[in-house]
Input
Amino acid sequence: MIGRNVGEIIRLFVFTLVGFLLMFVLQPLIYSAGFVRLADIQKQDLWLSDNYMPAATIVFIVSILATGIWCGWNISSPPSDGKAAAARSIGWWLLLLIPILGVVAALLFAVQPSATIGKLTGIDLPILAAMFSFDVLVVYWAATATSTPGLAKRLPPGAALFRR
Output
């Protein structure tokens, strides 16, 4: 039992670390290396530091917050049986709203126009939204699907793929 709990904790930290590396190392590198070119941004490095990094921080923090609430809830008040666990699954979906709202807030922050930097266009926004959505998949979904403790371990969608 202890080994299984340690594994859940390790997976939780691994997915959080992977999400951190994606958001704060790989994705900025994708932009700065020119793999994704922003149409109307004159100073891409300045946009990365002034707009992208704070927006990514919003997504990262709210995703960790939602993950922490979900895991903490299931540790401090585990469902008593299968029926209670099934009823709790709606809580996972409601907590998903926190990262979704975080992505919306981050996109609104990232599109703030600047006279020296420029502004994101309609072409750039879907790419950034896709990146942030992928980050939520890693930090919230993958972390909860692999690390939810106890009877609730199969509640996150796709958790059965990881829990055989």
